[in-house]
Amino acid sequence: ANLKPYIQDLKKTLLKGTLFERKSFIRSFVKRIVVEFPYAVIEYTIPLKKKSENPRNIEVLAFNLNGSRD
User: Fold this and answer.
1) Which helix (H) or strand (E) holds 44?
2) 30 Cβ partners below 8 Å, 6+ apart?
3) Phi, psi (5° rounding) for residue 43?
4) Between 20 and 30 A from 60 (CA), which of 38, 40, 43, 54?
């Protein structure tokens, strides 16, 4: 995946964004921060753009059925 556009957007937002924009942007990919002095662990994800998908083929809500129909 090409991360360059994402990194450029990150840099621009962090340098020129308002405090609200910067916090919102960071919260969009940081999932959890655990601090155990003197260490910290940051769990994050980087949203990757998927190749075009047909929206009609994307499952919205999965159903798990248990038992019989009787």
Assistant:
1) strand 39-44
2) 42, 43, 44
3) -100, 130
4) 43
